[in-house]
Amino acid sequence: MTRLAICPGSFDPITFGHLDIIQRGAKIFDEVIVAVFNNQAKSPLFSVQERIALIKESTKHIPNVSVDSNDGLLIDYAEEKNAQVILRGLRAVSDFEYEMQITAMNRKLDSKIETLFMMTNNQYSFLSSSIVKEVAKYKADVTDLVPVVVAEALKEKYQSK
Q1: Annotation-wise, does 18 bind a ligand?
Q2: What positions does the domain Cytidyltransferase-like occupy (predicted)?
Q3: Residue 145 assigned ligand-binding role
Q4: Strand partners of residue 6
């Protein structure tokens, strides 16, 4: 049986923190699907299609990673893909309470799908897409926070605004 994990997120944009979790997950699972979901509480800078393209470019060196998107419930998507695991990254204790609530709801909806939390590398524990967008908006260099393709896309977005 193929060990399949879904790594969900809004990825607006993908950061080195996200990539850290994806790369480490790809060593554990036979296949990892990076699934772009729209967070209703956020207004995204990049469209879903732009985010997918940036993630594909940023993960092309990892052969067992694919990229997809979904508009529904994560647990329904995981069932549809026959995933055994939802892979989530934790940066700090502040992430835990929110993630615990989501995990409890997912378990209530389908107890067969496990959630695996992975602590991000310490060098990325402060990193979020929101912080990256904030500093990029003011033309700061973000190449040590995101892949080059993402840094270029951010620069382009903010030049056109």
Answers
A1: yes
A2: 6-134
A3: no
A4: 33, 86
